[in-house]
Amino acid sequence: MLLTLAWGALFFPGLFALCTWALRRSRPGWSRTDCVMISTRLVSSVHAVLATGSGIVIIRSCDDVITDS
């Protein structure tokens, strides 16, 4: 479990930094604020998709979600 936490702690900030860097290089006319805002939304969207996917996996693997553990 700690390994998953460590990977998440590296993946999401790394994705944010990579997106910000790529946007600043590909769109030099955009301000830093614009690049950070788009990067934040992209990372948030990736996080939401992963959370939804894990929720679907959990729900599909349990017969009764309320009583299964």
Automatic annotation (TrEMBL):
Keywords: Signal. The keyword Signal applies. It comes from the Eukaryota. Residues 1-17 form the signal peptide. This is TLC domain containing 3A. It comes from Piliocolobus tephrosceles (Ugandan red Colobus).
